[in-house]
Design goal:
The chain contains twelve helices and 13 strands. Helix 9 links the parallel strand 9 and strand 10. Helix 3 runs parallel beside helix 10, helix 6 runs antiparallel to helix 12 and helix 8 packs parallel to helix 9. The protein is globular and about 55 Å long. The strands form two sheets. Strands 1-3-2-4-5-6-12 form a seven-stranded parallel sheet, with helices on both faces. A six-stranded mixed sheet has the order 8-7-9-10-11-13, with helices on both faces. The longest helix has 17 residues. Helix content is about 40%, strand content about 20%. About 10% of the residues have low confidence. About 55% of the residues are buried. With about 350 residues, it is of the alpha/beta class.
């Protein structure tokens, strides 16, 4: 595994490249065949990068599994603070020039860059997670029914709250995160119409700090807890870890997102207060795309993961959650009803 640290993808020192032949930057398309063979698949991370205990780490887990099971070599590229579209274009271009296939943009923010870069490398498959706006014959759109998993979280929150007030924190107010909000609020209200949901977004686009600043999540969660919430669900990437910290400090329930955050090593000191997590099988989506390319049948177009395929769900790693048989029964019923289309979950508030 070769990882590019948080440095710009342009103007990388040649000395650094000498140490890491597969790093993203600097070298031109005249790389040797051995370079290309060594770096066969690549991830370009979203805001927060690897180590966010959430979305990016889930993508990394898929790459890690592919390296183990498919015997491929993987390269990783980190975002830079405050970067623009040109930086993403440069990053994806260099990864493709290295011979990586597929090249996967982790997050919807890569859509404009992939739209520009994919046509220039028609023999390379580009994957983009959480976006369907960019289409091409060599682009695979890996998307999820986040609202369905969030609905289940809403059911659980409504069942465990003692105050009748729960909180939702969105990292950045964009359509993707509003899907999380919509499902969660609907799940809460369908379970307990009298429950109150406090909703707040950390930042507005084009400011994406709401996905990367734990202090923002922490302060917002503290405000919701002070407002009476005893369950807080944050869909905010790295910033969500701050919400978990604040909620655990108050002895209340936090609900994680994307990865099973109860099992994240970086959150181990708070795990007893992570009731459950809304999971997205980002790792499986990454692995499936890599395998499809290795098999010579690259995925293309929309590849959707929902409750019906266990592409989203609700984790049950916390032993305390497993003891809540009435909560689990309500969640399982809701899951069955969504799959059977007895319940239609909203995708916008």
């Amino acid at each position: 595994m070769r990882r590019i640290t948080r440095i710009a993808t342009v103007g990388i020192a040649s000395a650094a490249l000498a140490l890491s032949a597969t790093a993203c930057g600097g070298k031109k398309s005249s790389d040797t065949a051995s370079d290309k063979k060594e770096a066969s698949v690549a991830l370009a991370y979203d805001v927060g990068g690897r180590g966010d205990q959430s979305f990016n780490d889930a993508a990394y887990a898929g790459l890690e599994l592919a390296e183990k099971d498919l015997k491929v070599k993987g390269a990783e590229a980190e975002p830079t603070d405050g970067e623009g579209e040109a930086d993403k274009v440069q990053r994806l271009t260099e990864l493709a020039r290295k011979g990586n296939n597929p090249v996967i943009g982790v997050g919807f923010a890569y859509a404009p860059a992939i739209k520009k870069v994919a046509p220039k490398f028609p023999n390379t498959t580009f994957g983009i997670i959480d976006d369907t706006s960019v289409t091409d014959k060599n682009v695979a759109n890996l998307v999820f029914n986040e609202e369905q998993g969030s609905y289940l979280a809403g059911v659980a929150a409504a069942k465990v709250t003692k105050t009748g007030t729960v909180g939702f924190i969105g990292g950045v107010e964009v359509p993707l995160i509003k899907k999380f909000e919509a499902g969660f609020v609907q799940g809460v209200k369908d379970t307990n119409p009298n429950a109150k949901v406090l909703t707040q977004y950390l930042t507005q686009p084009p400011n994406f700090d709401g996905f990367s600043k734990p202090d923002l999540g922490k302060a917002t969660a503290q405000g919701q807890l002070d407002g009476g919430a005893d369950v807080v669900y944050a869909a905010a990437g790295l910033a969500g870890t701050g919400a978990i910290e604040a909620t655990a400090a108050k002895g209340k329930w936090a609900i994680g997102v994307d990865s099973d955050q109860y099992n994240q090593a970086g959150l181990s000191k708070y795990k007893d207060h992570i009731l459950t997590s809304v999971t997205k099988q980002v790792s499986q989506a990454v692995f499936d795309l890599i395998k499809s390319v290795q098999d010579g049948k690259p995925q293309t177009g929309e590849v959707r993961y929902g409750l019906d395929k266990d592409g989203v769900g609700l984790a049950d790693s916390n032993p305390e959650y497993k003891k809540m048989t009435d909560v689990i029964a309500a969640v399982e019923k809701a899951k069955a009803d969504i799959i059977a289309k007895k319940i239609t979950v909203k995708t916008a508030p």
